[in-house]
Write a structure and sequence with these properties.
single chain; globular; alpha/beta; six-stranded parallel sheet; 711 residues; 18% strand; binds 5'-O-[(L-methionyl)-sulphamoyl]adenosine
């Protein structure tokens, strides 16, 4: 029996050109849609434009156009974006289309006939940017809580929709269906909001006419959100259509700013219409730029067309899915993008394809044997990750198989083999590559197609059920390299006497472990090997140091246990051990020694790096094992251990947990600007770690000069 799956993105306001948020949402939805097709579902995937309402009307006026002229022009780039990205949508809806008028008007009439709509007068605050009514209580200093801008006061005749009669039923549904709203934090947010009664929603406007008229009262146009949400029904042909009956309920992929509209307004409308509810509301995080919310006013937006032209759509897709844990906010930066392209797409995947096809070209006809590499493929795990919408983990698990296949080449050294042994290796490599081309298809479809072409496979819709080793049937022919290495020109901050801005964040998983961090930058330091007064200070600290019950180290040990990191001592215990044994603290340089005295005294882990060698911003996160790491004193890069926590910049690990810093970013005598942070855990208050940070910075400027700024 055919399985059906309807998925949609939000429909975009063409009040400006498409931005990276629009791009991200389309990419995530496309991955899910393609994965479902891979699983054998018949998929209906829609995206489109939300063209009515006051915001668009005003924008058109500003452009001296009629709203209709404006939306035709402004809508085009959104269609082009889908094409350029290779989004596999089956429909692109524009709410000005007659098919949508028909559905929206019909549903409004049904709601009225069922007695859920009545006429009244609306008076209250309205934010035009989000096209949303607020109560005085919702406002922040009289401003819209989302856009932080002044709201307008609307006072006009309006129809109202009753939502309260459905609140209890909706709560029950959400409670009974844990996956109805993803992720769980957003589900809880909605359940919280549903504790309060729902006020009737004003669902029509009379002060302007850019919208869908109400068929029985032409002075009113429908409230833009009411009809926009119904686009999900329009694209399935309306409520009486076979297609709707087959595909409904939809899976709506949306951003966190419009959950209430989808989870409450739309669902209560469906209940009022006596229709089945949506299947799932999938909330993705927001894309920020270098830690900051993107906004036109700040001038920190990304032009989606420019980055696709520069790096190619597959690289962007790969980066967004692999880099950002799905459901959480994520940061876009070119440094991080390039690190993923070079470190994973070029080195792991591109290299594998090229190695295998070179080998095959050299030894045509040598393909025979029994499966071996299949043991390295954990298909169940990948499927499970996808079911749980952990897209980032699923992609990483696929890349683990890519890495295992590369390792198989290294371990088996086919260049030294011949005959059946060689044929067996080649067979395993070709089958692995074929399976990789299927699994990777939802994420990077263009590259998947290139691999399957080079393997000479017959082009059909790839299916998950074909991801097992079987009889090989391709006719391989080596083609171009899949990805090109991107040269990264490191920003030249060196020697500058002003530290750049940097942000530090602790992701949710690390916060759950109790990890905290505060940071500062110190500009214009002069780093020396030693300084007499500092040596005195160090000696004094060691002499008066007393052994204390170390609750901070214990709390760290609890974290090590939780994440399964074994055989590790807390760095302060190590430092204390050195001090006890030798009667002094190590002599590294004036910056490190300056903060080490504070670290020892306060029992805290402190780290400092040359900020000019750090790429982008810094985050504490749980490692997935793909991160590069070069520990202090080593010149060999290795991969981070999976499942530990690390402090990372946008290219690599800069500190493994709280114990070992990275060699590449260490402070040396050429360092001018320092990035310093203090790590805390559940045993330390925010004030305690801030105080340590202040003391460390004071010491640094005392012994190395410069100025400091707490971030
Ligand atoms: N028109 C409404 C949606 C109606 S759906 C029936 C709308 N449009 S929008 O153009 O403002 O936003 C479209 C989608 O992009 C929303 O899901 C929104 O959350 C998402 N994003 C907007 N900015 C974003 C980021 N910076 N990052 C990720 N997605 C964000 O809302």
């Amino acid at each position: 029996m055919k399985k059906y799956f309807a998925i949609s993105t939000a429909i975009d306001y063409p009040s400006g050109p498409p931005h990276a948020g629009h791009l991200y949402e389309k990419v995530c939805s496309d991955v899910i849609a393609r994965w479902k097709r891979l699983q054998g579902y018949q998929v209906h995937f829609s995206t489109g434009l939300d063209v009515h309402g006051l915001k668009i009307k005003r924008k058109a006026e500003e452009m001296r156009m009629t709203p209709k002229e404006y939306v035709i022009k402004a809508g085009k780039p959104f269609i082009e974006l889908c094409e350029k990205l290779g989004i596999s949508n089956d429909d692109f809806i524009d709410t000005e289309e007659p098919r949508h008028y028909k559905v929206a008007q019909q549903l409004f009439n049904i709601l009225q006939k069922k007695g859920f709509i009545y006429k009244g007068k609306y008076s209250g605050p309205y934010c035009v940017d989000c096209e949303t009514y607020y109560t005085e209580k919702d406002l922040e200093n009289g401003n819209c809580p989302v856009h932080k801008k002044t709201v307008e006061i609307v006072s006009e005749e309006s129809y109202f929709l009753k939502m309260e009669p459905f609140r209890k039923q909706l709560i029950q549904h959400i409670k009974k269906n844990p996956d109805f709203i993803f992720p769980e934090s957003k589900r809880n947010e909605i359940l919280n909001r549903l504790k309060e009664p729902l006020r009737d929603l004003s669902v029509s406007r009379t002060s302007f006419d850019w919208g869908i008229p109400i068929s029985f009262d032409k002075n009113h146009v429908e409230f833009v959100w009411l009809e926009a949400l119904q686009n999900y029904i329009t694209t399935l042909g309306g409520i009486h259509n076979e297609k709707f009956k087959r595909f409904w309920g939809g899976h709506h992929v949306i951003g966190k700013d419009i959950i209430f509209h989808h989870a409450v307004i739309f669902q209560t409308t469906l209940l009022a219409l006596d229709l089945p509810l949506s299947s799932q509301i999938i909330v993705h995080g927001f894309i920020n730029l270098k830690g900051e919310k993107m906004s036109k006013a700040k001038g920190n937006t990304i032009d989606p067309f420019a980055i696709i032209d520069k790096y190619g759509s597959d690289s962007i897709k790969y980066f967004l899915i692999r880099h950002i844990p799905f459901g959480q906010d994520g940061d876009f930066s070119e440094e991080a993008l390039i690190a993923r392209i070079n470190g994973e797409l070029v080195s792991d995947l591109g290299n594998l394809v090229s190695r295998v096809l070179t080998l095959v070209e050299k030894h045509k006809g040598y393909v025979k044997g029994r499966p071996e590499l299949n043991k390295k493929l954990n298909l169940k795990k990948i499927e499970k990750y996808m079911d749980k919408l952990e897209l980032h983990h699923a992609l990483d698990e696929i890349m683990n198989f890519v890495r295992a296949t590369n390792k198989y080449i290294n371990d088996n050294e086919p260049w030294k083999k011949e005959g059946n042994v060689l044929a067996n290796i080649i067979y395993n490599l070709l089958e692995s590559l074929r399976i990789i081309s299927i699994l990777i298809q939802p994420f990077i479809p263009d590259s998947a197609e290139k691999i399957s072409k080079q393997l000479g496979l017959k082009q059909t819709q790839p299916l998950l059920k074909d991801c097992k080793f079987g009889s090989w049937k391709g006719e391989p022919r080596k083609g171009e390299h899949l990805f090109k290495k991107v040269e990264w020109k490191a920003e030249k901050y060196h020697g500058k006497k002003e530290a750049r801005n940097i942000s530090v964040s602790v992701d949710k998983d690390c916060q759950d472990l109790g990890i905290k961090a505060v940071a500062a930058v110190v500009s214009g330091v002069t780093v020396k090997k030693k300084k007499g007064k500092l040596e005195k200070l160090k000696k004094g600290i060691v002499d008066k140091y007393e052994f204390k019950q170390d609750v901070i180290a214990e709390a760290y040990k609890e974290i090590y246990r939780k994440i399964g990191a074994k055989g590790i001592d807390h760095p302060i215990q190590t430092l204390r051990g050195i001090a006890k044994k030798s009667g002094k603290l190590p002599n590294i340089n004036t910056v490190v020694d300056s903060y080490n005295v504070v670290a020892l005294e306060k029992g805290l882990s402190i780290g400092a790096h040359d900020i000019d060698k750090i790429k982008g911003n810094v985050t504490f996160k749980i490692t997935d094992g793909s991160e590069d790491y070069k520990p202090l004193g080593s010149d060999k890069a290795q991969k981070a251990n999976r499942g530990e926590y690390a402090c990372v910049d946008e290219a690599r690990v800069i500190c493994r947990m709280d114990i070992k810093q990275c060699d590449e970013t260490k402070i040396d005598d050429r360092t001018s600007n320092v990035f310093i942070y203090v790590q805390g855990n559940k045993a330390t208050s925010e004030e305690y770690i801030k105080d340590a940070l202040r003391q460390a910075c004071e010491n640094i400027i005392k012994f190395c000069g410069g100025t400091y700024k707490i971030l």
